[in-house]
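Sequence in, structure out.
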Amino acid sequence: MSQTENGKQELPGVPEDTKFSLENILGDNHGAVEHPRLKRQEPDASSTAAEGWDEESVDRPSTEGYCVECEDQPAQIRCDDCQDDYCEVCFAAQHRKGTRRKHISKPLVVHPPEKLPNEQNGDSTEAREEEKTDEGDDDIDMADESDTELERIGTGLPTSPVKNALGTQPAVGSKVGDWFVERSKYIPLRLSFGERKYLRLLDAALQVSEYTDKIDTIGFGLSKTKRIVSQIRELCAILSGLVLSADYKLGQSLFTDRDFQKNEQFFQDTFELGRRHKIMNPDKMRTTYGKLIYLLQDSQSPEVKDMLNFTCVKPIKTVYSVLEEHGAAGLLRDDLITFATMEIYSDGRTRREVQKDIRTKERAIEVLSARYQCDGLSQEKVRQCLYSIGDNHAFLRTNRDPCDRMIAYLRQHFHPTQAKKPKHSLAIRSGKGGARLSHDHAKQYAYVLQSLTLWREILHDMFRLWSLAEQDLLSEVVPYRLRDTGQGLNRVQAAPKTLRMMHTILQRAQHSVGSWVGSSAIHMGDHNVPNALMFIDKYSQIYCILLPICNTLHHIPIIMEKPALRSYIEDEFGSDEGCILEILTDFFRHGFDGSGADNFFDAGSCIDGRLTSAWNWCAQLEKKRYFPVFLLTGFIGFDGEW
């Protein structure tokens, strides 16, 4: 390399008319001018056509074994008419309309070849070395690994094992059988964006309604049937007015003839939205759902139906019903569904592993939505079904998994037959510390284990129980009676379907633990649990008890990292292990001691009495000497906020 008089460097052997200078750039032969830095990077550039940033490499051949369209996914389908290989998503996108829909295709069963890192974007080795970063390499590796895993599923090859956290679903990549088929029959379909608008209107109408205040009362005036019809019409009128303010065109159609019978479908759909949303989110609509379900319960009465001239109730829209209606139930047996609905955990995992799972999940969702779309069932609807199943897994993680964690704490810190130390014995005696039962350590250990196991089984089948509870509540042949249960006037109604399912769950729990301590009586349709709504409300709050305790126990070792808090815990409890043991010992003793009522019929060792005792322990938490530890770990209360 030589140097000119003004100090600039010149490349040897470069013609004068191709030098990188202002004169040549503005001249007639500007197309032959090349930047010297680019020339150094590509010594063989003379044999390669230059490409601008806005030019496509139309002559570059596609990599063998990969999709001709996206060029980064393994080819899975061969189109005989196009004479090209596609991945499933690109084939569906390119052949969804027009004459291409009639193209003949056949599947490809091939192993995708490995791309060399320096060939993925057509860059030279030196340029790749200068621009490559660790994060970029991780993304490439994750994409290749994700696609390879999905390719193995599609071709029936064995897959690498993936962590199945706490058994929320079949192992990822395994054969699913009919597990998702049975499960999806009781999984409500997630609300769409448009449906959420009407949900807010329904909730607003129920907030201002005084339905239960005017119906569930003993007084004089109009007959109960006339009061019910009047209140239902009033709620429908309020709802129509809110719809008019939000959507003038739709609201105007509701007010055309002021005939509720002609708008029956609209009111049925709106009320169904509220029921579906509540099942998916038990912590929502705490006050309005009771009004809604009691209103629908009254609307099922034959006398009320005759006066209303329409019915307010329709079946809940579930994942299975939507797919079955369009003949796409095969989705629930597709082995890819475990990837598309898996929960992704970040605890104890690297960012690369989490990103790999995210890409795998997104890819599986796209493949399934393209594979099972059909007339009347769009790809977005298929995604909605998959997301709904994912919501069910999230529900199980929040509600059921705390039971698994408490069972793990019990087995880890306590011996089944004898206490490791006298102060950590689980033995309780009636009359001591508020206990109403007398158990030695072994008996109390078994009692706690079977109670937590029973709660776990109930929460595992909560969606099915909720479906049966609504069937009992909205039954036309099982009436209710208004009765003072000691906590005000309540609707006392038998729940045969829910009770039958509870006996099945109880038998499953008894078989799981091997033996049973205490009573196996289930209260349903009496003054303790007046109806199925009270039953569902009671057991849907289990996570409110166990999750704050699990969070506190999890954060105790973390707060020990601060010197001041470490000194406090060591002075009071000896160590973080001693603090955890004291909390667990007290909860396993007095959270399951039969307390919480004045007699053994209302509390004691019966199925519902176990939950009553746990709530009684929660009410006494502020008096415990370890209560400051709960506050230090972020505890707020047992009302679902933490």
